[in-house]
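Changelog-adjacent note: as of this version, every example in the card shows the full chain rather than a window. The one below runs 144 residues end to end.
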Amino acid sequence: MRQVTIADFKIQTTIVVQWGEMDAYQHVNNVNYVRWGETARVDYFRAMGFIINQEPKKMLYAPILGFQSVKYIAPVVYPDTIVIGTKTDAIKDDRFVLKSYFFSTQQNRLVAIQTHEVVIVDYNKQQKIAIPQAILDEIHQIED
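Full-length structure tokens:
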């Protein structure tokens, strides 16, 4: 099986590790991976054409995080730069699953993988809906 590299991703996010992100164990605290993953997820949403910070009443629907998990592979320390590649891993009737792969430029390796399960919410009805065809089209345009 071929190893995943950052070149495998059309959507990439670069994060410069800050000194203050390290914890008492002298490595980046795990909560920062969640924050970095959120930035990567928003970059993916923007590539799909979603306008971030738009007033909800003006949107028909929007992507909302329904579940997330992070697999930590290797610790990161300051100074470093993390490049995150994000792609759609699965599409289901009521959600799509993004995977973000965190690569350390200092270590030249994969250091974490985040899974984001994204549901689509109809803001007017305040409920989850099936994935609209327009979103499926955007995903396919990014991934194909």
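Structural remarks: The helical segments are 30-47, 133-143.
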